[in-house]
Amino acid sequence: MFGLLKSHYCGELRAEHVGQRVAMAGWVHRRRDHGGLIFIDLRDREGMVQVAFDPKASPQGHAVAEEMRSEYVVRVEGQVRRRPPGTENPKLATGDVEVVAEAAEILNPSQPPPFYIYEDGEVEESLRFKYRYLDLRRARMRDNILLRHRVVKFIRDFLDARGFVEIETPVLIKSTPEGARDYLVPSRVYPGKFYALPQSPQQLKQLLMVAGFERYFQIARCFRDEDLRADRQPEHTQLDLEMSFVEEKDILDLMEELITALMAEVKPSSRMLKPFPRLPYKEAMACYGSDKPDLRFGMEINDLSDLVADSEFTVFRAALGEGGRVKGFCAPGCAGYSRHQLEELTGLARSAGASGLVTMALVGEGSSPWSTVRSAAAKFLTQDQMAGITQRLEAGTGDLILLVAGQSPTVEKVLGHLRLEMGHRLGLADPDLFAFAFITEFPLLEWNSDGERWEPSHHPFTAPYEKDLALLDTDPGRVRAKCYDLVCNGLELASGSIRIHKRPLQERIFRLLGYREEDIQERFGHLLEAFEYGAPPHGGIAPGIDRLVMLLAGEDTIREVMAFPKTQSAQDLLMGAPSSVTEEQLRELHLAIRPERRQR
User: Fold this and answer.
1) Comparing C-alpha atoms, which of 169, 191, 289 is closest to residue 240?
2) Which CATH class is domain 10-108?
3) CATH number for the segment(s) 119-234+545-574
4) Strand-pair partners of 331
5) How far apart are CA 291 and CA 129, in angstroms?
6) What backbone torsions phi and psi does residue 568 show, to the nearest 5 degrees?
7) Is the model's pLDDT at 367 over the cut of 60?
8) Which of 36, 39, 302, 395 is 20 to 30 Å apart from 291, CA to CA?
9) Separation of alpha carbons 308 and 390, rounded Å
10) Residue 87 CB: number of other CB atoms within 10 A?
């Protein structure tokens, strides 16, 4: 298994190895000198084992151990024995045994590291990224990278067993609009021409379906020149998956089977919602105020417009008079919120786009929960209206009702934000539950008011529902897409769609998006021509590997599950990228750097 330097991993030794002579190599995790006996914890990729150096048993080994320090790379030969009774370490998988050193050598010393390797304390991120090769030695980061390996391996084996073929697609492609800025690569051979790094292999996987491969997948690298956040990087990895002769249900069923089997493999003690809920986009927005709802807790949003239609409360009347809605949800046990806490919630609502927030604290102890209500709106509502509100929101004494009035998209967004905030404050989300769900029937198009044009909600190759085709000419905003997302615990993990596979419909969509005929031919002519050579119905989905592993590892950012990530400002602190290049390199590429003009 190993060469001459190493016979076993440090982390694999168990009681059954007692009596065996082993050769170990790795890093000194800790060193302890007990005034004669020296102990080191020897660490490698698979874990740690204790090594004992006794000057009587091996003077040479003990002399070498005296020189060892943290992070030295060392090699040890010795015999495995049980630890003396009472000295076992239940925190280590190897804690019942130790290696008695017979020989040792230092393969390479180490400078004192800039932060502790043997503990997972807080370290400034910039320092961790500059010395990422040291950061990756720490147990948490090592476990995250190994988890990622297990996830990717499982996916490959799962899809191979179901007839999928793994095919690599080019990294240097043509620049085509797919929702974000492209990274451009200048061509030395063709002056003034550029390649683009793929935002995703979207058109290439569709062309593979035209080529007849029917079931394709790839662990694909994708590049997007966009502003970063916790779950975004300039480059990321996704499982790219495409199938021919399928409908939406086929793809969702496959993904549910894959995720369920993956969770059983890498998180066997976890719990899931089964089967995965499948919520139309409108329902998700109406009930949870989000297209990636956290379903680990309730507090659903309800429409109360019909109950307060005749209310004398000015806020409600004004919103309803302008075609808006009044919606809200119940926060259990929060009736005792102070004025400061309520003002804080109002500030959150305004920051999310609301003009204000109406609160109703049900503090009464009479025959009904609304017998005593602390609210600016209470005196404008009848008993029947209050009773209807509390009944619809399933509110009782001691609860706090949060209401927002305005145009429906804004109201849903604000209440969705408040719902997550209250769920966090109240600790309602079960940390051991993975609430996977599919969101379906997204709008095909979104109106860009700044550009005064329609834009694709997903991408321009997404197929609309056949029954909505007539609306493309009369009311494009109402057209539903055969598009779907996989979400979990408030995160979007995957997005996919059934694709357009006929040229006339694809050209119709391009024209609706404002592309001129010459632009259509220049940017998409190769795909449109392929559709004329027997393109099958097809569709796919692309789960983000980084986000999926982040979720499984319990991390907050994808940077913690990537070996060499960029910073929040897209810098590589380890290698110093992006960096300047020489004038000679620029000349070869027929490029010149033009200084920015200063604003006067």
Assistant:
1) 169
2) mainly beta
3) 3.30.930.10
4) 400
5) 33
6) -60, -25
7) no
8) 395
9) 12
10) 12
